[in-house]
Amino acid sequence: MTIKSLAIITACVATMMAASSCTKDLNRLPYVQETSETVYKDPVKIKGVLAKLYGSLCLSGQHYEDNSLSDIVTDNTGTNVFLRNYWSLQELTTDEAVIGWNDGDLLSFHNLNFTPDGKYVKVMYDRIFFGVAACNEFLRQTTDDKTSSFPADVTANIKEYRYEARFLRAFYYWIAIDLYGKVPFVTEADPVGAFQPKQISRADLFTYLETELKDLETLLPEPRTNEYGRVDKGAAWALLAKLYLNAKVYTGTEKNAETITYCNKLINTTAYQLAADYSRLFKTDNNLTTEIIFPILADGVTSQSYGNTSYIVLGSIGGTMNPADYGMSTAWGGMRTTKNIVDLFPDPFGNTDKRAMFYTSGQNLDISDLSSFNDGYAVPKFKNISSTGQPGSDPTRRFTDTDFPMFRLGDVYLMYAEAVLRGGSGGTLAEALNYVNLIRRRAYGNTNGDISASELTLDFILAERGRELYWEAKRRTDLVRFGKLTSGSYVWPFKGGVAAGTGVQEKYNVFPIPNTDRIANPNLVQNDGY
């Protein structure tokens, strides 16, 4: 059985915990229809729990719309999914996306006026610590002592699963350090039951992540040798590169040389190559490329979810767009982009730079009404069709097969170039220029988009990251790193809740700790300014 086919989790690993307990009790034993004693005595079920850890990135729980089977209870089951919330917090807060729905605190993201009482500020936070708690419990239940009765080959497999669980926990904590800064910290060594964890500083969490990931890079399988969708050394290298690139934000100290070191590990292996066709990275058969380092999986039949790429695809269709052109049967009419992103390209139709994937018919470039889908160009970058034009596997065309490229090589090339420009040792300007031009040659189909060394600046890198990585949940982190998310020196439509855009308080560079968690845990101190 594959991780992808196991993403619909069997009854033996049913709903693991409710959101109401995530904040007070990060280590509560999972609620299961079978007890831990029975689940963890069966190696097949142990792999099922591992699948649950991965499935938590893209699924609501046991069912896509039955709230009683959700990992985290919300008023709409589809809104509790990790990827959906991460994408929203990373994109809707920036120049890359606006949304027309007045649901909870969604509009507060683009307005940059979110609060500790915000609905989705809390859902994202709960999702992170649900994932941490699930990984911790898996690690508690799969120690050498508890699996000693299994045959040697089975215990060897479980040991590999443990490395993956540790990576996924580190991944969740990386999301936490980036979005929320100083957060509660728990590992499998902490007690189970009613427990109020201590808060860890951003700098100390950085050190933990660095240490944990450097250990895991020696333990995980070689790049692209694990089952598709499961992590390997490449994922650890990519996460380390991202951690180091943002080190100044997290700790006050730059780590650009370290960024280059880990980018080089990814670039120098033959396991990863740029996909020949950029658009294929966002179609149903993107799993056949060798560019994606760590995907968040989707399958329209075996892992139905309104919170994986189904959310991105459905939310991007509206106006005069025909859902069938994108492999779907319906449209949600939600997200569009601002003219700032459109203006990064020579034209919005992809005639020059093929990465420009905007739908303009019936759409206004300028946004005067956030609630109107027709204001702002639509962005059908992600599609539920294959590179040969075939729709996804779900016969109802409601759910996608398109995996989300959480880490990919194109991003690594740009991280390398940025780290060189920021003064990191171990790389060269010539190599940085080459990597940027390789990306642009794919985009242009020729050398017409090549730039010179004098044109390769940090401002260019931020713009190029916008061109290459828009709608891939990178933009908020990028704008924070470049000092532009809250600054009045760079604005976009409705930034700060003003039609022309305005600067906002620096506190919005990080999200607040939800008030519900602070009430439940007096150890937690709110982020400055909230």
UniProtKB/TrEMBL annotation:
Keyword Signal: yes
Residue intervals of the RagB/SusD domain: 368-530
Cellular compartments per GO CC: cell outer membrane
InterPro entries: SusD-like_N, SusD_RagB_dom, TPR-like_helical_dom_sf
Family: Belongs to the SusD family.
Domain of life (superkingdom): Bacteria
Residue ranges annotated for the SusD-like N-terminal domain, each copy included: 44-245
Stated name of the protein: Starch-binding associating with outer membrane
CDD domains for the chain: SusD
Alphabetic keyword roster: Cell outer membrane, Membrane, Signal
Main location: membrane
Subcellular location: Cell outer membrane
Signal sequence annotation: 1-21
